Amino acid sequence: MQLTQRSKQVDRKPMTWLESLYLWNIAKGMAITMSHFFKRKPTIQYPEQTRTFSKVFRGLHVLNRDAEGRENCTACGLCAVACPAEAITMEAAERQPGEENLYREEKYAAKYEINMLRCIFCGLCEEACPKDAIYLSQTFAPANYGRKGFIYKKTDLLIPHPLKDPEAYQKALGEKEARN
Ligand code: SF4
Ligand code: SF4
């Protein structure tokens, strides 16, 4: 019994001498190849050219600062608890007198790491964060030869300082604002 009408009966009769030269099939193949010369190219010249990602694209994480450059993260651990891949680890520390310009609240993340090999870019860490301290940007983790290169430390994740490097800060923030 046939389930669809798409099946084709295989022709098993021996090929003629002319058919065994495959000239007609080669010509058909070349015609298909030539027809692609005149079609719009679906490939792009990466990395010189990049595609525009969807607004909801979730890429590499960024640890956010406030407008004065202070780190937002208070090392509450909610992102690590929400992470289904257990990709986030951190160590909390107390802010010392004189460090008010570095950390927004009394507690901060002395160490913050994300294992990008575990991460599934679900965005739950961003959803869980009550301090607007982490968001997923529109860039993706670059390729690396070693596993250690995929363990992103706090220095890799922190957004540029808004006062020291305002251009880079605005660029990183621009991606976030475009998604909101
Ligand atoms: S995006 Fe998802 S998997 Fe990746 S660190 Fe955040 S919560 Fe974990
Ligand atoms: S990123 Fe947000 S949720 Fe995670 S520890 Fe920092 S403040 Fe808490």
Set down the secondary structure blueprint.
Blueprint: H1 17-20, H2 23-37, E1 61-63, H3 78-82, E2 88-94, E3 107-115, H4 124-128, E4 134-136, E5 151-152, H5 154-157, H6 166-179
Antiparallel strand pairs: 1-4, 2-3, 3-5
This protein binds iron/sulfur cluster (2 copies).
One iron/sulfur cluster binds at residues 73-79, 90, 109, 128-129, 131, 133-134.
Summarize the structure.
The protein is of the alpha+beta class and 180 residues long.
Task: Quickly list its features.
180 residues; alpha+beta; Alpha-Beta Plaits; 3-stranded antiparallel β-sheet; 6 helices; 26% helix; 13% strand; elongated; binds iron/sulfur cluster
- The helix count comes to 6
Task: Report how far apart the termini are.
Answer: 55 Å
C-alpha Rg (nearest Å): 27 Å
What is the class of one domain in the CATH system?
Answer: Alpha Beta
Amount of beta strand: 5-15%
Largest sheet: 3 strands, antiparallel
Low-confidence spans: pLDDT under 50, at least 5 residues? none
Number of strands: 5
CATH topology of one domain: Alpha-Beta Plaits
Helix content: 25-40%
Task: Provide an overview of this structure.
The chain has helices at residues 17-20, 23-37, 78-82, 124-128, 154-157, 166-179; strands at residues 61-63, 88-94, 107-115, 134-136, 151-152. With 180 residues, the chain is an alpha+beta fold. The protein has a domain at 61-179: Alpha-Beta Plaits. A 3-stranded antiparallel beta sheet has the order 2-3-5. A two-stranded antiparallel sheet has the order 1-4. It starts with 16 loop residues before the first helix and ends with a helix.
